[in-house]
Amino acid sequence: MSSFRFGDFILAPDERKLTRNGIELTLGARAFDMLNFLVANRHRVLTKAEILDAVWPDVAVEESNLTVQVSALRKALGPKSLVTIPGRGYQFVLSVEEVAPASAQVAETPAASNPKILVLPFTNTSNDPDQEYFSDGITEDIITDLSKVAALSVVARNTAFTFKGRAIDVAHTAQRMNLTHVVEGSVRKSGNRVRINAQLVDGATGHPIWAHRFDRDLTDIFDLQDQITEAIVAALRVRLIPSERAAIQSRPTDNPQAYEIYLQARYHHLRLDKQNYAIASRLAQQALDIDPEYDLAWALLAISQTGLFGLSASAEHGLQAAERALALNPDLSEALAAKAFVLAGLGRFDEAFKLHERSLQLDPNSYDVRFLYGRACFQTGRHADAIVHWERAAELSETALPATTNLSMSYEATGQHEKALDSARRSLARAERALSENSSDSYALICGALALAKLGEAERTKQWALRVKAVDPDDPSIDYNIACALALLGETETALDTLEACLPKVDPVTFSVWVKQDTDLDSLRGTPRFQRLVQDLDARVANAKTKLDD
């Protein structure tokens, strides 16, 4: 049977061993059985009855026994390893990597024979902060490529990017994280030229054991990434087998220009207002004009088109683009999540959830998979599930704003007020960080305004709302969120005025579902004006469905 790696832990079911950094931990038999069951079923919430039946078969035990074992696991693995879903059960939420038995045995050998590597986010040394997307993309690709080498253990992207923008002591970090090596570097892009400085640092001494500077045309970017990866592997004295070399050289597109445009589109794709949806859509289409077989670009185009469709800013709802992505790659998790998002936007939630489940099975560590699944759960009132997916999405991307911004609503819906406030604080911190790089970031401004309203900072909320309206005065999604912020501040009539102005401009199917779940609007629900707005949305939904049936 395979072993399972999560963080510094390795779970070996056959050997009934749980180790951390090579040191065996003591777990009781019941706690070990429960951990096995939770990890094996990590893609879903397990009811208490299911766990009791699996861990105590044919034995009648009280629920308090379950609570004791859950507490023991959290003590051993950390408090965030298991999430309690009120009224339902538990889910194991740490990122899990399944490793073959041979790999698990290697993990128990001395570090020199099993390198564990952290790739720090490469620094953007271009004179243009807008090139940040490019240096991040290079880093992500190097992490991905090194992860394809079975002899290496590579720290996951979401953990690596927590170090972005921070100066670190390599030797201290390596000791704390049980690393053998750290990769660090910088990217300077100017016109059609790119310069990458990279070095491999010995974790024990903090001294470089390999360093090189690469100067290339952008047309050579893929060869350059391959050279960096293979040079790191060679410096570690690891031999690549042919299948690993082929995997490293495999790319979703062979066109460097399409690749660079896709990276730009990806940056805007993480910002969910009309302006950014439109930019992401245009850039994805440009990438596809260059390479019509670029499956990831088709998936991104589908999501962007659906976002614009929801704001009545596009006649294309994204279904064709999503199906094109799946035709190119039926097992692309992002494409499955994109089609699910499209179907949810059309009100076809049963179909959407089937695709979400499959996308989650294929890649539980994809930001798009987690965020979009959480969104569908929220829209259908499954707030506990939304929390699980959105918390994971927030971990997977340290810079993306949507997950932390939306989390507070589901926490409020489940009566977890303090966690809702914590989500607002996290969202505000991310918004302020984004605005330090781009003071006109419309999505960061509106997310920050909402967070400030939830934290009761009325004057700053209004200042941020004025700023975002100056950046983009015509986006109904911005007006909708300003109305939410005003409702949170108790300014009922102004909030209703804003809703009356913006809701007629949006797609009724998308917003009728959202408005009914949005806890930010709870203070308005008892007013006749708000009830009329909901009735108007429902009437428009019925009218739209009638037209589709004709």
Account of the protein in words:
- With 550 residues, the chain is α+β, with helices and mostly antiparallel strands.
- It folds into 3 domains: 3-98, Orthogonal Bundle (Arc Repressor Mutant, subunit A); 109-251, Rossmann fold; 252-400, Tetratricopeptide repeat domain (Serine Threonine Protein Phosphatase 5, Tetratricopeptide repeat, Alpha Horseshoe), CATH 1.25.40.10.
- The protein is built from 25 helices and 14 strands.
- The chain has helices spanning 29-40, 48-55, 63-77, 101-107, 132-147, 157-160, 170-177, 221-235, 242-249, 256-269, 274-290, 295-310, 319-328, 333-345, 349-362, 367-379, 383-396, 402-413, 417-437, 442-454, 458-471, 476-488, 492-502, 508-517, 528-549, and strands at 3-6, 9-12, 17-20, 23-24, 46-47, 82-85, 89-92, 97-99, 116-119, 123-124, 153-154, 181-190, 193-202, 208-217.
- Strands 9, 10, 11, 12, 13 and 14 form a 6-stranded mixed beta sheet that branches.
- Strand 13 and strand 14 form a beta hairpin.
- Helix 10 runs parallel beside helix 12 (295-310) and helix 20 packs parallel to helix 22.
- The termini are far apart.
- Mean pLDDT is 84; it is low at 101-112.
